[in-house]
Amino acid sequence: MINIAIDGPSGAGKSTIARKVAEKLGFVYVDTGAMYRAIGVHVMRHNLPTDDARAVISVLYDAHIALAYQAGEQHILLNGEDVSKAIRLPEASMAASNVSAIPEVRAYLFDLQKNIANTTNCIMDGRDIGTVVLPDAQVKIFLTATAEERTRRRCLELEQKGTPVDYDTLLTEIIQRDYNDSHRAAAPLKKADDATEIDSTGLSIEEITDIIVKMAEAVL
């Protein structure tokens, strides 16, 4: 099986790029961040703090996460409910950052992620794919961009979805999430030693997609 790992901070364009690359190569796209967001939504629906490990673990094993593909698009299911829109709200982003720092949450989702990678050609994006989940991936990318550029993109995305947010507030949240993700004890965000770093600031989606597709084709 051929696996492609894309890591990077929130808002760097990982999901968009990974989806495009998967389409061009005919690979399965796995958005691991969506899984953590779903856990965060699950905890919030229980009115529990997402940064309290004991509280999170108390409801963790009641959260059944599954992926479904419709017309080539990945949908995330939480206990059978499609929560693909709910997990994209700003509060779900911070919740995901909090729950992903809990080792039990990462272990809970690890087996699902590994099983997908072992049974199909896939491209997987997240924070620790190249370093922890798929350390033997044939292609590893660390995709980044300035915090300001990532905030601009996310604001535009949310505005187009009808849920506009304040730029300065979102910028503060993204900077805080960068810090949280890179300083957590469990599988912190970092570039794998053998990963290729791509700064997407100023590059188009098509340009970045072409770079990664060429890298993948070299090992196919």
Short key terms for the protein model shown above:
220 residues, alpha/beta, five-stranded parallel sheet, globular
What is this entry, summarized?
The chain is α/β, with parallel strands linked by helices. The protein has helices at residues 14-25, 32-45, 53-60, 90-99, 103-119, 129-133, 147-160, 167-183, 205-217; strands spanning 3-7, 28-31, 65-70, 73-78, 81-82, 122-126, 139-144, 196-199.
Regions with pLDDT < 50 over 5+ consecutive residues?
none
Helical run tally: 9
Class of secondary structure makeup: alpha/beta
Strand order of the largest sheet: 2-6-1-7-8
What share of the residues does DSSP label as strand, in percent?
15-25%
Percent helix range: 40-55%
Order of helices and strands: EHEHHEEEHHEHEHHEH
Mean model confidence by pLDDT: 93
Description:
This protein is an alpha/beta fold and 220 residues long. It is built from nine helices and eight strands. The radius of gyration is 16 Å and the shape is globular.
